[in-house]
Structures are given as C-alpha cells and as structure tokens.
Amino acid sequence: MLHRRVSLSQDQSVLVTLDRQANVMLTDDLNFGRKKRGESYTYYGGLCKRSPARIAPPNAGNWNVTIDFGGTAG
After folding, report:
1. pLDDT higher than threshold 60 for residue 74
2. 19 FRET partner, CA 20 to 30 A, in 52, 58, 68, 70?
3. In whole angstroms, how far apart are CA 62 and each of 3, 25, 26, 48, 71?
4. Please, what is the Cα angle at 47 between 6 and 74, to 5 degrees?
5. What is the mean pLDDT of the chain?
6. At 65, phi and psi to the nearest 5?
7. Nearest by Cα to 53 from 10, 6, 21, 8
8. Closest Cα partner for 15 from 73, 60, 6?
9. Residue ranges of domains in the chain
10. pTM score, two decimals?
11. Nearest 10 degrees: CA dihedral of 31, 32, 35, 40?
C-alpha cells in the first residue's frame, strides 16, 4: 500500500498513473484513521483498471491518497 497526504482545493483533483490495476482511494483524515484501524470507512475512487486515475475531492482540505495493490508488490 502506498500513501500520500495532500492539500487540495475544490477545483483540484488527484491524478495517479499506474502500470497495473489497483484500488485508488481518496479519504479524509477521519476515514483514513478508520481504514488503518480496520474499521468501516468511506472513500472516493475505487478499482482503477486503466491509467491514469483522476479523483476529485468533494471539498477543499487535507486528503489521503491511498493506492492498494491487493497484496502484490507496488
């Protein structure tokens, strides 16, 4: 799993370039903490089968971009 915390305005988006399919998720800090603890959480994005993946936040703020390769090497 790869993680990066970013600050985004509402008119910005995250662009992730991949060489294989992966789950690309954008979470706020509360939901990222829930994900780390293994609890239910809400995210934007999902399984990306084609690159690049573009995800726009619903509002400005600090966001966590997580790329999960499902147990395979990233």
Report:
1. no
2. 58
3. 13, 14, 10, 22, 27
4. 65
5. 92
6. -100, 120
7. 21
8. 6
9. 2-68
10. 0.87
11. 10
Polymer length in residues for the chain:
74
Number of other CB atoms surrounding residue 2 within 10 Å = 12
What tens digit of pLDDT does each residue of 10-62 get?
899 999 999 999 999 999 999 999 999 999 999 999 999 999 999 999 999 99
Q: Which residue carries 């600090």 as its tokens?
A: 62
Output the CA angle 16-73-63, nearest 5 degrees.
Answer: 35
pLDDT tens string 23-37: 999 999 999 999 999
> How far, in Å, CA of 57 to CA of 2, rounded?
19
